[in-house]
């Protein structure tokens, strides 16, 4: 006699899980992130560029800042290396997604975790968490190194000074946001070169060129672009006066990232791996 219950593919087997828990998916993404050497290289480069270049530019500009020849306040230089550490944050977020498409790992991931939204959420949490910590550590190291030279020139800033702690925390938040931006772009484009070009072009190139647009509308376009809107929270004092208030800009940046991630998740759910 045939056991029809045993042949039912939808039957419930005691002790068996139909889908992995989100904690399992999160752990898998964490393991995948740290199993490739590019992660360590990216984070090492992020630290060297962010902290190293901040220290270097403060050393080089300290006397000019003190004499007024620099034309900028000391606070503008304390997170200067962020300009370059953005590159590695974008690269890391992109590779987390596009490397899986390149190797075919994405098909295995989807097979193991059929709920694709859980994959996106796990990648987003892992990437943003790692980049937040890396950005915060880098910003603190850059502040300690750069402010040492500024102090010697009599223009150093204390942690209690207006905007300093916010900028250090903001570095972590901004780099985490850039990582999410790159994850979303990678899901939409699925090609490393194309995703990096879009991310770096929009954040670093278009964001700067937009300041050259004429009139009030050009000023607002520049303010609202992701790199400019989000970057203001990571600066003690911006080099340009044309910027949104730090937390206002970050709120705009967060809304843009959320919208892009939502679009990427919807496309990821409907498209073949």
From TrEMBL:
Q: Where are the transmembrane segments?
A: 41-62, 74-97, 118-144, 164-188, 195-213, 244-268
Q: Which UniProt keywords apply?
A: Membrane, Transmembrane, Transmembrane helix
PANTHER family documented for this protein: BACITRACIN TRANSPORT PERMEASE PROTEIN BCRB, INTEGRAL MEMBRANE PROTEIN-RELATED
Entry protein name: ABC transporter
State the organism's lineage. Answer: Bacteria, Bacillati, Actinomycetota, Actinomycetes, Geodermatophilales
């Amino acid at each position: 006699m045939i056991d029809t219950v045993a042949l039912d593919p939808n039957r419930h087997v005691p002790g068996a899980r139909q889908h992995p828990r989100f904690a399992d998916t999160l752990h898998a993404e964490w393991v995948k992130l740290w199993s490739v050497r590019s992660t360590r290289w990216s984070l090492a480069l992020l630290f060297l560029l962010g902290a190293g270049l901040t220290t270097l530019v403060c050393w080089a500009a300290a006397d000019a800042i003190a004499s007024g020849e620099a034309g900028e306040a000391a606070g503008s230089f304390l997170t200067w290396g962020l300009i370059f550490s953005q590159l590695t944050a974008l690269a890391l977020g992109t590779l987390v997604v596009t490397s899986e498409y390149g190797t075919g790992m994405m098909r295995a991931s989807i097979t193991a975790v059929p709920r694709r939204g859980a994959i996106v959420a796990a990648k987003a949490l892992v990437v943003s968490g790692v980049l937040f910590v890396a950005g915060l550590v880098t910003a603190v190291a850059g502040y300690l190194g750069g402010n040492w030279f500024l102090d010697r020139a009599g223009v150093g800033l204390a942690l209690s000074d207006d905007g300093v702690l916010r900028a250090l925390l903001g570095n972590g938040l901004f780099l985490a946001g850039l990582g999410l931006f790159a994850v979303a772009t990678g899901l939409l484009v699925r090609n490393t070169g194309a995703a990096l070009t879009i991310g770096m072009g929009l954040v670093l190139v278009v964001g700067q060129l937009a300041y050259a647009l004429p009139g009030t509308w050009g000023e607002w376009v520049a303010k609202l672009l992701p790199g400019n809107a989000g970057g203001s929270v990571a600066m003690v004092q911006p080099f340009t006066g044309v910027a949104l208030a730090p937390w206002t800009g970050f709120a705009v940046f967060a809304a843009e990232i959320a919208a892009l991630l939502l679009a990427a998740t919807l496309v990821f759910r409907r498209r073949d791996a």
